[in-house]
From TrEMBL:
Cellular compartment(s): Cell membrane; Membrane raft
Listed transmembrane segments: 20-40, 183-200
Entry-linked Gene3D superfamilies: 1.10.287.130, Histidine kinase-like ATPase, C-terminal domain, PAS domain
PROSITE patterns: HIS_KIN, PAS
Bilayer topology annotation: Multi-pass membrane protein
EC number: 2.7.13.3
Alphabetized UniProt keyword annotations: ATP-binding, Cell membrane, Kinase, Membrane, Nucleotide-binding, Phosphoprotein, Transferase, Transmembrane, Transmembrane helix, Two-component regulatory system
Cross-referenced Pfam families: HATPase_c, HisKA, PAS_4
InterPro entries linked to this entry: HATPase_C_sf, HATPase_dom, His_kinase_dom, HisK_dim/P_dom, HisK_dim/P_sf, PAS, PAS-like_dom_sf, PAS_4
Gene designation per UniProt: yycG
Species for this entry: Pseudobythopirellula maris
One Gene Ontology cellular component annotation held by this UniProt entry: membrane raft
Name of the protein this chain belongs to: histidine kinase
SUPFAM superfamilies the record matches: ATPase domain of HSP90 chaperone/DNA topoisomerase II/histidine kinase, Homodimeric domain of signal transducing histidine kinase, PYP-like sensor domain (PAS domain)
């Protein structure tokens, strides 16, 4: 078997090249990070220096301009213009201006803008004592910082001095950092390059070793593995050469005994196989057992299978000699009556090792067979439940369609029968849909406030015609005090009606059926008791299985689908409750629906 190699192209590169690549990547990343840090530091220091210079010189210039505004000299405008130009040059500002109280430029470093109305930019504002700053985006997309100082005398406003400075861009800061620190960047790069050359020389033996190990990984186990010696220039190469010599000597020696690691793995595999619930065995060409787990011995009822003939133990279920070269599956039945078990026997020839060996597996499929039997019974019942109402509906509808019946009462009777059979058919289809929802876990409930006594009364009214038809004494007992609970009324009512319907169905004429509800220990218990046929203890749990029908002939003579009790119990459990059964053959049954109150 060939060992799959990585599909990543980089991982297939020589070791020395990969080591140098990683080394260069992280070193260059460190230098780049240093350069970015220098640029950020330059940007921060420059911005702070410009801000401090603007704040200091703006206050001085504001005093000069205010004095010039208060004097009524002929050269007042010139003095103000000189002060603005001097301020602009000192901080390398974009512009400097004086705004009068009318919102117009009284003076500006650009003479053409004197007298223009002043626009108010939108941006971030900060206050530094008597000076206000505004940071905003200019028309060219570059951010600007505008410094403002109010001009006033004896409380009277004279105007405002404004200084606009372009904010340094990241590109300018990076260029400044590179121009200021060429040595700090170039020197580490030179050292990194020298280190890369040294790494290549140091890892060259490892590179040659990797090539040979990769070749070994590609070599099949059936091929001879050959490793080459390295030039003995380093201690690593000497160690490799010694390893190659020892492997060459051992390759000519006899195979070594299994190591403890191999023994441990074999023991672990055997423990796993022994823990399987399915029976597993291996036989030789003569059909005698070489290995068998505990499960197969238990399924065949044998204490020890070693060296025994598995074919003889299986009897008729064993495959014939002419099928020895192919996989076979058969069934083996053991026991009788209720103790009968069905085993599925599979035989698979082993292609490796000794000829004629085979792998056997045995699985207990008794429950699966019972489910299949119940399914077949359900199909028969479902066919009857569908055919009978459809036949009745067809017969009466055809009679009405011919027009031979003119008696109004007869027409009403026929329509009532058709409606009854359609209702019966619809109820059966609803049960099938509910079972389908139950199988996929989609059955849900919708809780509403429900009065228990009213719920029991409605269920009793639905069951009363069945009781009267067989002259069964029907007793209903509601709780002593009114109880209100959050329930899915329709589903709980259907569950109670199903229990009452079963009680009426399997209770002979003149019998007794009771419906009693009591509140006890935070639970509501609704008990449906009858004096009917009763249920054997061996079927107490199976009556809640889907499609199950009792083996009692008296029960099989009565129509039923085997869906009512499973649905009723599922509805109870969706309400965090349950349905329990107490019954004995010939003494009747009591089904108790328990629901938590609150």
């Amino acid at each position: 078997m060939r060992i799959p190699l990585s599909k990543n192209p980089f991982s297939r590169q020589p070791l020395a090249r990969r080591v140098v690549a990683y080394y260069l990547f992280f070193c260059v990343a460190a230098v780049a990070w240093l350069l970015v840090g220098s640029a950020w530091t330059s940007y921060t220091l420059h911005s702070q220096r410009v801000s401090d210079s603007c704040l200091a010189r703006l206050g001085q210039t504001a005093a000069t301009v205010k004095v010039a505004l208060l004097r009524d000299n002929a050269d007042k405008s010139q003095r103000i213009a000189d002060a603005l130009h001097q301020l602009q040059r000192s901080v390398d500002a974009k512009s400097c201006s004086v705004v009068d109280t009318q919102g117009k430029f009284a003076a500006h470093t650009d003479p053409d803008r004197v007298g223009e109305p002043v626009g108010e930019p939108v941006g971030e504002r900060k206050q530094w004592g008597a000076i206000e700053t505004i940071r905003y985006e200019g028309a060219n997309g570059r951010y600007k910082n505008e410094y403002r100082a109010a001009l006033s005398s004896d409380g009277a406003a004279l105007g405002e001095l404004r200084l606009t400075v372009d904010e340094m861009r990241g590109v300018d800061a990076f260029s400044m950092a590179v121009s200021n620190t060429p040595t700090a960047v170039l020197a580490p790069l030179v050292l990194i390059f020298i280190g890369a050359l040294a790494l290549v020389r140091m890892t060259r033996p490892l590179d040659e070793m990797q090539d040979q190990l990769t070749r070994a990984a590609r070599t099949s186990k059936t091929e001879r593995l050959e490793l080459d010696r390295l030039r003995p220039a380093t201690a690593t190469a000497l160690g490799w050469n010694r390893l190659v010599e020892e492997l060459s000597e051992k390759s000519t020696a006899e195979p070594a005994a299994p190591t403890p690691e191999v023994d441990r793995r074999r023991s672990g595999f055997e423990e796993i196989v022994q823990g399987l619930s399915d029976g597993v065995a291996v036989t030789d060409a003569a059909g005698r057992v070489e290995f068998a787990n505990r499960a197969i011995a238990a399924l065949l009822g044998a204490e020890e299978l070693s060296d025994q003939s598995l074919v003889e133990l299986l009897g008729d279920a064993a495959p014939s000699a002419d099928t020895a070269c192919r996989r076979t599956v058969s069934e083996l039945r053991r026991g009788e009556g209720e103790a009968e078990r069905v085993l599925r026997v599979a035989r698979q020839p082993l292609t490796e090792g000794k000829a004629g060996r085979a792998l056997w597996s045995l699985r207990d499929v008794t429950q699966q067979k019972l489910v299949e039997q119940a399914r077949d019974q359900f199909i028969d019942t479902a066919t009857h439940e569908l055919r009978t109402p459809l036949s009745n509906i067809r017969a009466y509808s055809e009679t009405l369609a011919t027009g031979d019946v003119v008696d109004l009462e007869a027409v009403k009777e026929f329509c009532t029968i058709i409606n009854s059979e359609a209702t019966r058919l619809g109820r059966f289809v609803d049960d099938l849909l509910t079972i389908s929802s139950l199988e996929v876990g989609a059955l849900t409930i919708e809780r509403h406030n429900v009065m228990v006594d009213r719920l029991l009364s409605e269920a009793a009214m639905k069951a009363k015609p069945l009781m009267e038809q067989k002259q069964i004494e029907f007793e209903v007992q509601a709780p002593a005090k009114p109880i209100e609970m959050k329930l899915d009324k329709d589903k709980i009512a259907a569950a109670i009606t199903n229990l009452l319907g079963n009680a009426a169905k399997y209770t002979p004429e003149g019998g007794h059926v009771s419906l009693k509800a009591t509140a006890q220990g935070g639970e509501l218990r609704i008990a449906v008791a009858d004096t009917g046929l009763g249920i054997g203890e061996d079927e107490h749990t199976r009556v809640f299985e889907k499609f199950f029908r009792s083996a009692d002939e008296r029960v099989r003579d009565t129509t039923g689908t085997g869906l009512g009790l499973p649905l009723a119990r599922e509805v109870a459990r969706l309400h965090d409750g349950d349905i329990t059964l107490e019954s004995k053959i010939g003494q009747g049954s009591t089904f108790t629906l328990t629901l938590p109150i609150g």
